[in-house]
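User: Structure with iron/sulfur cluster, tokens only please.
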Amino acid sequence: MYGFMGELLRVDLSQGKISTEEIQEDIAKKYLGGIGLGTKYLYDKVKKGTNPLGPENELIFMTGPLTGTPSPSAGRYDVVAKSPLTGIWGHGNSGGSWGAFLKRSGYDGIIFQGVSPKPVYLKIEGGEAELLDADHLWGKTVPDTTDTINRDLGEKFHIACIGPGGENLVRYAAIMNEKHRAVGRCGLGAVMGSKRLKAIAVSGKGSPRIANEEEFKRVAKKQYELLNESMLKVGFETFGTNMVSDMVNAKGGYPTRNWQTGVFDKIDEVGGQALVDKVLEGKVNCFACPIACGRISKIKEGKWKGKEGEGPEYESAVTLGSMCGVSDMNAITMANFLCNEYGLDTISCGSTIAFAMECYEKGLLTSNDTGGLELRFGDGDMVVELVEKIAAREGIGDLLAEGTKRVSEKLNKDSERFAMHVKGLELPAYDPRAAKICGLGYVTANRGGDHITGYVQGPTFIDTPFLVVDNSTIKDPFVANPEEAKVLIDLENALTVFDMAGVCKFMGMLLKAEEWVALLANATGWEFDVEAFRKAGERVYNLVRSFNVREGITRADDTLPRRLLEEPLPEGPAKGMVIDEETLEKLKDAYYEFRGWDKKTGKPTPEKLRQLGLDDIIKDLWGDK
Ligand code: SF4
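Assistant:
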């Protein structure tokens, strides 16, 4: 099979057994790789009601047919499992070069099942895999774990691992690769910790066979040329993802003090230029990517002077910054470094701290609960201290390690009104009261409150269209237009294919579907056109929704925190705006209709599933009728 290595590793951690499994070509054709193949395996093996932190949950690492090829941005891989944070489909995607080296080690993916009786890590080199003792690694941070394994096995190994966050089952723990890149969302690091799997070290010189190598190289070269000429590359390389800060703030959607407002009066201290001026040391790119959007940074003054790392990305800078009312770039950078070192999702971590700060402000949390700590908005040192406590589950950190939804359920007292999550996943850094379609995107994203699933923030908040779809225009972001639900669906389907193919979603802004079709067709040798490209994404989107429906998700779960539905933004260009419930329900009606989902329940209809070749799961959703 071209484009693939053709085999997966199945690792039974309870038994300490490793076996290989051939990938069936007909399954690969239908689901490609990444979240497509990963979710297919997850759906088939992880039954309804499985405990996300128990032995029956599977943790699936998967690359795509473009991962490890010379295609632009082809270093990406995906991880899926049932999420301990949301209780539904959990997914994270990461860059760097680990995914490419997993493939070079001889395998397209790894499926972990069971729970190891003691800490272990997996070593794969040139097709040979073995489980090694990780007692000496348990308790170590991500950089220490990485350095220790590299010392033991050699520098040629690329390491993905968890830190103390994952070991301590923080519900939003991340899996980190090459120290700084994160499979961030949904707490998949906690799933890895629950299996006592500390790390995966990969090395090898293999590469997937390309069906039409000359043509593949020609198309890839043309893509590099297009990317190198783009203005977006200039913006990304100068400011990283923080280039969007000023735009989002100017549109009134920059979440501040736990979403109490959408304008941060200290934006000049934390925006794209501030990061460049205060902490930027250099830029870094992922495997085979001509756009170096990663930030190498260093704190240059104050008590953390000399501390180095990568980031913060835009979402991290906001959640650990303005959401907590913090304008101290050094504290934001330090909190971000610590999240990476301990292996925590910056978005969920910062958001949960912001929520706790508002609870403290309102007297729902008191110093009796916090061990004497004062959780006040604007206190950057406190954010740093709380990150430490969360990773260690120490004091108030033990409660905050549960995530916003569970903290709110514990405190009750109407705190759910400003608990800023959807389906248990903390919201990222764009206030949908200032761009209504983004609110629909949060409720329809399969992993919960997420921006990058359909990234309709591109055409709304940052005025950037997506070339990968025919039309990504949102006429007036302040107006909720049900017809524009179709734009969101097209984006969700197309961007899903990026997570199936093993490339970066940012490329969806810059290159057309035809370009990706040419790469996929020439890599695999399969007949593939734009229609098949879009249908593949739609199929997997529906499969994931079906996983969630099987877990009990209904239309009623597709909703926003009450703050966004009821509390008007108090200032800025979106002053006075909410997405009221009636508006959201109208958007959902249109969305379900375009999707071919049942409006009453939010389930994909039998007709839709049949049309997508998912006949075998109709019974799970609809019984025998
Ligand atoms: S655009 Fe940025 S995140 Fe995407 S692959 Fe390139 S360097 Fe990595």
